[in-house]
Structure formats: structure tokens, C-alpha cells
């Protein structure tokens, strides 16, 4: 599109008869101003006098030059929108605020850190650590129960499980004139027996009085003994984790019925009452009833 650089017509000059009349050369307008007017006005500039009058440019009969008219048109089209205070410009129309400008959000400023903020950060850090610890405990319990153990707890960072879903029938102490060094949990033959906690298989197989047994050596030096089992599912030297199935409830040896005989040996070999030992760690087998909530 060729920009129209003249906004008014020149009256032709009379010439003698027979002399060829050439059109009057339009006024020369600065290339920069023509470019601005063409880009800002486009077709409006090409409309000539009518559009110029609509935009409020003064009359074309000698009141203002073409260059002045283009200057006002360019100023109207190219004025930046700003809320800053500027000196009044008498040659350009008043700037109109941008539509929707009132919805622009001012950049937020970050609050300054003070002593109170430092305390809050410390609390958040502590909460995060507690959350990580709780998640670790949950994973340990879930892992310990993944093979079917009826209950699991975490004591001093280590998981422990209820060794079987049997019902408590006999405690530690004298019985029928002899010392009973463990506790009994009655359950049907074949009921799974689980490793009380992490350890290494120290014994597995036939045993006098127990018929068959499994003995686990734990990392703290203690041992757990599982007697009268039906069969062993582990081998000597095998590492096991809390909740791993290691044997089945049986009725072998000197037994009056299917049950698990559980003993706890201290690191020096002495036998301790399993009931308070387990209760101290969160497992109350005395109220075991054989269900999953035992």
C-alpha cells in the first residue's frame, strides 16, 4: 500500500492556452513521519480528509500544514500508556489507560526474615524429620507383615512381629513340677511361624524334647527358639528378616497338642520370660486370641 502523503488538494494554476498542464508536485513529507503514519493509521490515512477530520485534525484550509497533521496522527497512534507523572504535552491527545489495566497485580515483595521466622523454619524442619521417621516406621511394619504376620511393631529402630496367630495357653515358670522356660501359643498344625525379628538361623531340625525346632540369633545377641514345629522352612546360616516365614506349627516331641513353644535366650545363654520381654517391645501375646488382631 502506498501511503498518501497529502491530506489536502492544491488548486491548479492557470496556464496559457495550448500549454500542457502538469500536476503540481505534492509537498515532500519526511520519510520517517510517513512510515509512522502508515503503520499507525493504515487505511485511515488513505481515507484523506474525512478520516483526518474524524480524528480531530484541524481544518485543511490553511489552518495547519500536512506535516503537523501527520505529527498529531502519529502521536495519537504511538503514545505509550503509563501511569507515571509527565509534563503536559499540548501537541498530543491525552493518553488513555489500557483496558484491563486496573487488574494488573503489583509485584509482591518477600517478607523479611526475623527471629520468629527462624523458629518457624526450625519447626518445619523438625516436622519434616518426624514425617520421614514415621514413614520409615510404616515401611518397616508393612514389610514385616508382608508375609502374613498378624502384628508388627518397631522397637529401637528394629521391627518385631507376633510369631504366629495362635492363642496364648501357657506361661513361663514351674509347671507339673518342672521349669517351663517359654510360653505356648496354640494353633492348628501347619499355621505359619514367623521370624520374631531380623537374625541368622543358628539351628534348624530335630531337637530333644521339642521334636523339631528353629533357633535364630539376633543382632543384639539374643536368640529366639521355636519348638514343637511341624517342619522347618530355613537352613542353618540363612539370614532372615522380621516377618519371614521360617516354620509351621506342629505337635512333635513332648507336646499335649499343636502349639508353638517360644523361648528367649539372653546373649549369655540364660533363659528369660518371653512375656514381659515382648510386652516391653510392644507385643502383648498374653492377650493373643488367634485372630489377626491378636
From TrEMBL:
SUPFAM superfamilies: Duplicated hybrid motif. It comes from the Bacteria. One of its GO terms (molecular function) is metalloendopeptidase activity. Residues 88-98 have a biased composition (Low complexity). Residues 179-274 form the M23ase beta-sheet core domain. Coiled coil: none annotated. This is Peptidase family M23. It comes from Pseudonocardia ammonioxydans. The lineage of its organism: Bacteria, Bacillati, Actinomycetota, Actinomycetes, Pseudonocardiales.
